[in-house]
Each structure stands twice: as structure tokens, then as C-alpha cells.
């Protein structure tokens, strides 16, 4: 398929950062390094370990030097990514395990490090969460830097990029991106990566169009080739003719006008024409995303995923470290609230002292609230951190993967123990902190009427709820077509959760991807949801739809959808009605989710 697309001059990848740009290719030659494998004699072991440690120190020095040279404030905001890499260079698992392999197997440092990186990559591949799985790339960025220092290979001076170029690379580390003169970079294209890789995150934050996951693009493009990046549809066109270039220039002009218009809605209330208010929250993984969320009109953090604090390390985050992180969120989003979701990964992702082996089906195994309850001390440390931070702003606690009332009650009991300890220590916290249940398992949706009396709010995780309810894995290409958010069963399930919550007097929100799709906004509005939480980028677009709609017309659309029998019928009907109702927002064949 890739070869056929190349012959036509068109490549299809993953839309990582929206925008359309035309420019000349700047090819970064940095393929996978060939690792020398060599046995060493016992007397050489100490010298080999010393050589490895020198490469580590040299790598640290290079990253710190990059940080010192950067003065542009918009780039300095992303230094936290370099700090993650510096953290890896201090990671005992990475360093000590490599040293142990050098000692025990008496092999050279490059070979030993390659063995350890292979094990870490295998571990990352088992992680369910896409964002956390993509952190494998950080390990490999760091490893490549160490390899180059071990082997005496040079590092490209990307600061010398001139002109208005499109950077083409196998992959780009944050260190690569940060040291470029971004005034000369029109776009990014890479062989590997996904929507939550650092290249994608940085590109979106900096407003630079990018297409990633093109597999072999570096072997298909020559330096100086004329390229078009369509960051909405994930398309790259190589050496387009004049007619195609003019077509994309016109598309770019129209889309930029639309985007400027949409951003005007960021600071406006999320209210329908007939006065129905629905809160707009932001889903974030990093504290550093707060300014982006606020800039795009977030009225709070609807979901902060805490998993990033626990992974990429051999030890566990301390209570103090977690407190400081949650405090930054509370203060940064004040006076609005932030929902802190407790740990949502499995026990097999933790240090060996916890003794959990890899599970055959981790998605249905010991994960999320099940793991937290099984490890109450670890759970309590996180809850104490959240509680302490609640004294500095409005925080809420969200328990993930709730399947029944016993899990809620056990979780609340541990929360009460943490409160009691803090009271005894004289440490302030919000004694009335709200507790929520994440509804993402069908059993929880069925008993939502009784669950609603146990918590202060519901947050519907549609990503997993749809997968579990329809028994499909949306990452499996053979069945992904069955991932249907507008399946009649899903609509009834969500409606039932909303009604159960409202009867009990609690708020109900959605924090899954469904909340950000413009085609689904009126359907969700018609259900009477209290909050929609999404990636910050989509908030102004959703506000625009809401402010040009009425609650009554949304309920009518929902009623009509209920009369249809299949997901395909509902999907066709809803998208047709939305395109008729909001023609400007479905222009040029593009949807806001980046699909064409």
C-alpha cells in the first residue's frame, strides 16, 4: 500500500498537528544505529563500566547545554520534556541493570545497554494507555544519545536549519525539536510516532503542522523535495504539480479563516441559545498543559491522568512529589475545579517488589481501582497527596474502572483513613472534597441508580465503555469498524447513566473522546449532560456548536436518533443533520478530529 501511495506522490500517515503547509524537505539522517556486540575479558569490565558512566555524564551535559542555549519563552515552556530525559539518565534501573549485564555477561557497554532497552521496550508495549505506551520513545531517545556518546558519533546541529523547511526524520526527540530555530520550520514529518508522541504534542502546542507514523518516508523523500503537509487529514504530497499546490493554498486560506473564527469562542460561556449551560473541561496528562487548557477556554480540568507520575521509573512517587503536582494543578486552574483520577494502570507495571506478573488480558485484570484497593498503602499515599493539595484549590477525586458498590465503599473507606491521619497530624485539607465514580464498565451503568447514592458525581469514560459494551478492541484493525459511539445500546446506556445521576441529584459528565466530536455534540447535549471534557484544542469548536444551538433542538435530534435501529443509520442521520445545520463547520470534507 505504501509503495502504491508513493508512486502517486501521496503518503498517508497520522494527523499529529493540524494545518496545511508547503515547503522544501530538510532531511535529518538519523536511522537506527548498528550496535557493536563484543565480549570482553574480566580485567576489562571495570574500564567498560567507567566508559558507560562517562557516556551517561556526557549525555546529561549535552541536554543541560541545550537548555542553557534556548532563550525563546514559547520553547522554554517545554523544558519539562528534557527534564524527563534527564530523569532517565539518573534512573537506577537503566544504569544499574546495564552495569550488571556488563559484569555478569562480560560484554561491551553498547551491547549491554541494548539488552536493557529491549526489555524496557517490551514492558512498555504491554501498557494499555496510548499516551503512556508512547513514552517508550523517551527511553529510546535517551538510549540513542548514550549510544552515540559511547561510539563517538556526532550529533546533528539542528540549530543551523535555515529557510522555511519541512523537517523529515525517522523520529525527532524533544531535544531535537527544542534546539531548532522554529522560525525556519514549517512542519514535521516522521517515520514513526503517534498522536501522543512528544513530536505530536510539541507540534500541536507550537502550532506547527505535523504528520507522523509514515513508516518509511525518510527513504522516499530527498532533501529539497517540494512537500505539502495536510495536518488535518494526515496526508503528505511529494513534489505536487502547480494545480495541486494552488488547491491546497486555497484550502489553507479557508481553514485559517475558520480557525480564527472558532478561537473567538474560547472565552465565551458554553451556553446554548435558550440558556442551557454545560461545563467545558479539559483532559490533561501534564501540569504544563494547563496554560493551553485555559487559553482554549477550559472551565476546569475534567480529567487529570495521574499515571505519568508512576511510570518510567523504578521507585514510586512520594506523597510530597504528588502533593506538589496536584497543588500546581489546583492553583493553576483556580477558581475552577480539577478532577484528579486515581491511578489507572495494572500491578504488572510496578517494581518487582509488588510481585505481579504480566497478565494474559490486562484490560480485564488487576488494574485501576482494583489494584489500588489491593495495595491500600500505595493508594493512601496518592489520596493523602490529593487531600493536602485540596487546601490550595478545588480538587475532586475520581475512582476509575468501578464495577460495583463494594469498590466504591472500600475506596471511600481508605480515603477516610487518609483524612483521619491528616487531621491527627494537623495538616489542612478540604474535608468536603467531592468523590466521583468513572463509569466505563457496563455493570456500573446498569446499577448507576444505586451507585449514584454513593458518590458526588459521575464521569463517563466512553472510550472503554464502548469497547467493553460492544466487546471490541478499537486498535484491532479487523474489528475496529465495530467501534460505534452511536450504537443504540451505547446511547441508551449513556442516557440511563445521566438519568440515574440526575434523579440522585449528582452531576454527570463525559471525559471520553466522544465529547470532542462535533458530530456528536447535539446528541450529548440532548441527553442533559452537565459537563463535556476533552483535549483542550477542541473546546472552542464545541463551544461554537453549543452557542449556535438550542437545548430543545438537541432533544429533538436525540428523539429522532432513538427511532432508528442501527448504529450506521443513526450515524448517517446525525452527521447529515449536523452538516446541514452547521455547514461551515464541516467544510472542505474535514472533521475536527483530523479525519478527512
Strand order of the largest sheet: 1-8-7-3-4-5-6-2
Number of helices: 25
The number of distinct structural domains comes to 3
- The CATH superfamily of the largest domain is Phosphoenolpyruvate-binding domains
Rg for CA atoms: 25 Å
- Main sheet characteristics: 8 strands, mixed
The end-to-end distance, rounded to whole angstroms, is 18 Å
| Poorly predicted runs of 5 or more residues | 1-7, 588-596
Per CATH, which architecture of the largest domain? Alpha-Beta Barrel
Helix content: 40-55%
pLDDT average, as an integer?
Answer: 84
- Assign the CATH class of the largest domain: Alpha Beta
Strand portion: 5-15%
CATH topology of the largest domain: TIM Barrel
By secondary-structure content and strand pairing, the structural class works out as alpha/beta
Shape: globular
Task: Give me the count of strands.
Answer: 16
User: In oligomeric terms, what are we looking at?
Assistant: single chain
Describe the overall structure.
The protein is an alpha/beta fold and 596 residues long. It has 3 domains: 2-30 and 157-242, Phosphohistidine domain (Glucose Oxidase, domain 1, 3-Layer(bba) Sandwich), CATH 3.50.30.10; 42-151, PtsI, HPr-binding domain (Enzyme I, Chain A, domain 2), CATH 1.10.274; 262-589, TIM Barrel, CATH 3.20.20. Helices cover 46% and strands 13% of the residues. The protein is built from 25 helices and 16 strands. The strands form 2 sheets. It has an 8-stranded mixed beta sheet. Helix 6 packs antiparallel against helix 8 (136-151) and helix 16 (376-389) crosses helix 17. It is globular and about 75 Å long. It starts with a helix and ends in a 15-residue tail after the last helix.
Amino acid at each position: 500500500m505504501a509503495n502504491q501511495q508513493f508512486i502517486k506522490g501521496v503518503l498517508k500517515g497520522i494527523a499529529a498537528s493540524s494545518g496545511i503547509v508547503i515547503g522544501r524537505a530538510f532531511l535529518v539522517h538519523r536511522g537506527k544505529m548498528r550496535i557493536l556486540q563484543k565480549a570482553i575479558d574480566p580485567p576489562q569490565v571495570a574500564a567498560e563500566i567507567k566508559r558507560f558512566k562517562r557516556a551517561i555524564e556526557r549525555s546529561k551535559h549535552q541536554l543541560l547545554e541545550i537548555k542553557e542555549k534556548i532563550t525563546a519563552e514559547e520553547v522554554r515552556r517545554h523544558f519539562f520534556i528534557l527534564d524527563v530525559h534527564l530523569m532517565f539518565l539518573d534512573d537506577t534501573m537503566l544504569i544499574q541493570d546495564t552495569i550488571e549485564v556488563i559484569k555478569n555477561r562480560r560484554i561491551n557497554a553498547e551491547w549491554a545497554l541494548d539488552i536493557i532497552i529491549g526489555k524496557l521496550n517490551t514492558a512498555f508495549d504491554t501498557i494499555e494507555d496510548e499516551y503512556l505506551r508512547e513514552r517508550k520513545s523517551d527511553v529510546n531517545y535517551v538510549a540513542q544519545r548514550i549510544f552515540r556518546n559511547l561510539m563517538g558519533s556526532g550529533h546533528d546541529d539542528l540549530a543551523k536549519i535555515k529557510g522555511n523547511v519541512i523537517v523529515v526524520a525517522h523520529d525527532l526527540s524533544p531535544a531535537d525539536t527544542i534546539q531548532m530555530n522554529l522560525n525556519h520550520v514549517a512542519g514535521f514529518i516522521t517515520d514513526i510516532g503517534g498522536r501522543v508522541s512528544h513530536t505530536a504534542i510539541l507540534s500541536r502546542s507550537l502550532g506547527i503542522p505535523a504528520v507522523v507514523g509514515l513508516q518509511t518516508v525518510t527513504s522516499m523523500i530527498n532533501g529539497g523535495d517540494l512537500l505539502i503537509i495536510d495536518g488535518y487529514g494526515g496526508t503528505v504530497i511529494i513534489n505536487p504539480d502547480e494545480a495541486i499546490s494552488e488547491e491546497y493554498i486555497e484550502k489553507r486560506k479557508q481553514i485559517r479563516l475558520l480557525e480564527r473564527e472558532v478561537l473567538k469562542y474560547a472565552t465565551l460561556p458554553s451556553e446554548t441559545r435558550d440558556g442551557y449551560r454545560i461545563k467545558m473541561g479539559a483532559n490533561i496528562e501534564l501540569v504544563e498543559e494547563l496554560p493551553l487548557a485555559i487559553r482554549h477556554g477550559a472551565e476546569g480540568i475534567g480529567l487529570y491522568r495521574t499515571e505519568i507520575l508512576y511510570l518510567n521509573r523504578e521507585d514510586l512517587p512520594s506523597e510530597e512529589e504528588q502533593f506538589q503536582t496536584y497543588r500546581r494543578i489546583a492553583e493553576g486552574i483556580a477558581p475552577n475545579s480539577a478532577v484528579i483520577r486515581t491511578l489507572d494502570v495494572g500491578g504488572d507495571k510496578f517494581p518487582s517488589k509488588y510481585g505481579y506478573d504480566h497478565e494474559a488480558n490486562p484490560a480485564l485484570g488487576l488494574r485501576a481501582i482494583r489494584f489500588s484497593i489491593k495495595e491500600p498503602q500505595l493508594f493512601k499515599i496518592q489520596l493523602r497527596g490529593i487531600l493536602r493539595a485540596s487546601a490550595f484549590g478545588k480538587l475532586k477525586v475520581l475512582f476509575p474502572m468501578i464495577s460495583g458498590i463494594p469498590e466504591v465503599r472500600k475506596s471511600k473507606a481508605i480515603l477516610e483513613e487518609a483524612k483521619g491521619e491528616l487531621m491527627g497530624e494537623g495538616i489542612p485539607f478540604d474535608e468536603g472534597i467531592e468523590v466521583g465514580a468513572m463509569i466505563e464498565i457496563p455493570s456500573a451503568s446498569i446499577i448507576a441508580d444505586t451507585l449514584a447514592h454513593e458518590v458526588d458525581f459521575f464521569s463517563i469514560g466512553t472510550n472503554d465503555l464502548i469497547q467493553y459494551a460492544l466487546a471490541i478492541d478499537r486498535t484491532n484493525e479487523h474489528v475496529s469498524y465495530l467501534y460505534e459511539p452511536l450504537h443504540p445500546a451505547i446511547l441508551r446506556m449513556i442516557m440511563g447513566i445521566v438519568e440515574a445521576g440526575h434523579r440522585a441529584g449528582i452531576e454527570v459528565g463525559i471525559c471520553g473522546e466522544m465529547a470532542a466530536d462535533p458530530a456528536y455534540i447535539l446528541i450529548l447535549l440532548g441527553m442533559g449532560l452537565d459537563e463535556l471534557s476533552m483535549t483542550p484544542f477542541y473546546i472552542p469548536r464545541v463551544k461554537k456548536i453549543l452557542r449556535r444551538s438550542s437545548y430543545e433542538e438537541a432533544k429533538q435530534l436525540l428523539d429522532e436518533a432513538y427511532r432508528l435501529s442501527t448504529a450506521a443509520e443513526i450515524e448517517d442521520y446525525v452527521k447529515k443533520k449536523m452538516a446541514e445545520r452547521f455547514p461551515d463547520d464541516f467544510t472542505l470534507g474535514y472533521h475536527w478530529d483530523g479525519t478527512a
